[in-house]
Give the backbone structure.
Amino acid sequence: MTHDISNEFSIQTRLLHHKHKTDPSSGAVSVAIQPASTFHQEGLDDFGEFDYARSGNPTRQALEETFAELENGTAAYAFASGMAAISTTFMLLSAGDHLVITDDVYGGTFRFTTEVLTRLGIEHTFVDMTNVDEVKNAIRPNTKMIHMETPSNPTMKITPIRELVSLAKEHNCLTVLDNTFMTPVLQRPLDLGVDVVVHSATKFIGGHSDVVAGLAVVKDPELASRLKFLQNSFGAILGPNDCWLILRGMKTLHTRMEASMKSAEMIAQWLTEQSAVKYVYYPGLKGHPGYEINESQSDGPGAVLSFELADREAVKKVVDAVEIPVFAVSLGAVESILSYPAKMSHAAMPPDERAKRGITDGLLRLSVGLEKPEDLISDFKRAFETLVE
Ligand SMILES: *Cc1c(COP(=O)(O)O)cnc(C)c1O
């Protein structure tokens, strides 16, 4: 892969000015959508760069090359969903291997680990990754991968990335980090030594609640060729139209993240001052246990926060009363999204397991969008007033 984006420019500029900003054949200021499934070859001894679209497609290549640059990697691979990126990355493991994984991992990753990897003879141990000793104690001779997610969902726990990377290197195992909540705008784990960064591009990267996609990024060329082989073998590639949508969404990624994060900081602070709110989980608050670690390894706390109300009854009243946010699963969109982890992302988890993780019946998660933050605050203020009637 050739690179011509100057790393001297900030990510804000590089999101717009990169190798694929214009189409060399026409000068068009947009990547062309190439729907072809197969490519004509000039002759028996003259095969071109592309042969079959599962193996490679120009629109997908534009997305993959652009995204690799943003994460400071050498190669990126685009998948049909975040889960396709994550599952394919897990296929780097073999029967008999062991995986150490964060205990508040994304629900789909939890399901794949416990119900699919186990069937394939790949063992796992869930640990609290804020506690390095717990990770250390979980490592066995056959541990081949450590899977991190920071901030975690929905209680926004912060994993010390550098410490886990050095632990993994001592034990010769790969590190994988789900960077969905942060995006390369706020956190670049490859720079901290992580081996594979995975994303649900469905969230902030796409950003408009209109496409499902995933990405995996690496720095090491040998690992890149193993992942490319798995992408082609597994076949869960992202189609060209969706690649284009992601490229389009990425143009405003920096601006969206910055604006949403600024609003999230304001809303989180306001929530801490509300009597209806028992606790606010947001790594941008000074009282958050991971505040300093997050500051040391990222460029901000992101735009997702969770807060706890008294109980399910209070949640019901607030959900019924708010007018602005959509009430839905997912996050990272232009519109604010309010979700109820106990019945949505963590519905499959037994209540006692949920309680252990702080995912009570009073917990709501808010992904802050691009509305005027004062409007969101007035909306919640009015909704909280329904609790005292
Ligand atoms: C949504 C999400 C995923 C899964 O991504 P899909 O695109 O829905 O398959 C993985 N990890 C995190 C942190 C997510 O929020």
